[in-house]
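In response to reviewer comment 3 from the previous cycle, which asked for concrete evidence that the modeling workflow produces usable outputs, we include below a single protein chain processed end to end. The sequence was submitted unchanged, and the resulting structure tokens are shown without manual editing.
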Amino acid sequence: MSILAENTINEIAYAGGYYSNKPISTTSTITGASSVISGQGATVSLTTAQSGSLLLFDRAAGITYTLPSPSAGTYYTFMVTVSVTSNSDKIVTNTASQYLMGSLTNIKTDLTSLFSITDGTSIRSITMNGTTTGALLGSIFYFYAVNSTQWLVDGTNLASGTIATPFATS
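The workflow returned the following structure tokens.
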């Protein structure tokens, strides 16, 4: 994948094909599958219509993405393109009765790792602080809605220091 300086995606691979040459603007409203959402400020509330989008953590001051209510088949990819240095990068469900299930591989810069697992009954977010809980450049997460209350998460989270799970209950 390459992201050009003029904010155009060349190709983003995904299972079964690719998205190609879709221009983006950081000041326009972006909707529909295969969009890139970037530079949107500190908080972004996603919609089901944005399913299939690539969402960038591209602010050193952190971004919080709030997922919509899960609807089976809805999916998003999140990528850290700027390591967070203050506040946090976060992906959170939109209500206290929606949960994450799945796993993350948390890898430290010296290649030690921690495998984090959640079972879909209490964890509502991935919260990353730029060090021990991750959000370093190159981290990537995949979210898939599997039913009306659960999101399946998979990904690789790059961290430093003493690695801790980024899974959180709020």
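Residues 77 and 170 are 21 Å apart (CA to CA). We consider this sufficient to address the reviewer's concern, and the full set will be provided in the supplementary archive.
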